[in-house]
């Protein structure tokens, strides 16, 4: 399944009708443990997206910059992180040829929750938690909201975080509003409407095989 959403519908889905997207189900069985206290103020508040940390691998002065736009709930993204990204990391990122930036895409509230967990441990733990989220996607994605949140808590604990830290991250309404605003700005800048998408030195590409990806990178390196 490939997530596709018209760019103009992204803002409507996220913020249309107030904060329903982020708060629907709160207090019900599925999401009883996630209050999202700041979400109701997300529209009215002035959001400073410059506070969002870019998650980066590779040398800052690498000759090529690759930005991946991906959703934690996208099966194609999980496949890319199992097959494509490890090869890119081994052959281009770790060798200093590519600066790799990972940016989250939010097509659903579960993706926002996953992002809260991934970022909860800071830059040091982000990519490790991201790997755990994608590796377990086929299992947690089949559960109801309560089961998904429980799975995310377990992933946070496995990554070495304390329970109080995890709960604080899941209930950080200001962070939710900031991340969603950041995503909207990114999606508008690079016209992101499907995942995974890749921006290579400013040019957007759809999902592709490693062979296609490496051919593009090699041509730039020649």
Automatic annotation (TrEMBL):
Transmembrane segments: none annotated. Gene3D superfamilies: Glutaredoxin (3.40.30.10). Residues 51-219 form the Thioredoxin-like fold domain. It comes from the Bacteria. It holds the Pfam family Thioredoxin_4. InterPro entries: Thioredoxin-like_fold (IPR012336), Thioredoxin-like_sf (IPR036249). Belongs to the thioredoxin family. DsbA subfamily. This is Disulfide bond formation protein D. It comes from Antarctobacter heliothermus.
